[in-house]
Design brief:
The protein is of the alpha+beta class. The chain has 4 helices and 3 strands, in the order αβαααββ. The protein has a single domain, classed as Ribosomal protein L17 (50s Ribosomal Protein L17, Chain: A), CATH 3.90.1030. The chain has a 3-stranded antiparallel beta sheet.
């Protein structure tokens, strides 16, 4: 039974899944859009919302927390310099998910995740 178990496992072990999601969030911050499968996009969207909320207020504590979470220092720098100030007045909903055509090789449902 999986009562009250939250989050998707995406067919991966915990370390691999966390690393993959952190990398996807980092790429989303750097390029401001990323194309991936729908399941991954839903998980990344939740994590990205939390990361951007921390990036709105530039404190040493928030910077250190995000540097420990995200593998790319340039993404953290861009978050605090560009993205965070852009969303200071916005209470939430920083990302948008647009469904795309299925992937050609295996017909996996694809989605475009981008910053609003």
């Amino acid at each position: 039974m999986r009562h009250r178990v939250s989050g998707r496992t995406l067919g991966r072990r915990t370390e691999h899944r966390e690393s993959m999601l952190n990398n996807l969030v980092s790429q989303l911050l750097r390029h401001e859009r990323v194309t991936t499968t729908e399941a991954k996009a839903r998980e990344v969207k939740a994590l990205a919302e939390k990361v951007i909320s921390k990036g709105r207020e530039e404190t040493l504590h928030n910077r250190r927390q995000l540097l420990s979470l995200l593998p790319d220092k340039n993404a953290v720098k861009k978050l605090f310099d560009d993205i965070g100030p852009r969303y200071v007045d916005r209470p939430g909903g920083y990302t948008r998910m647009v469904k795309l055509m299925p992937r050609k090789g295996d017909a996996a449902p694809m989605a475009l995740l981008e910053l609003v």
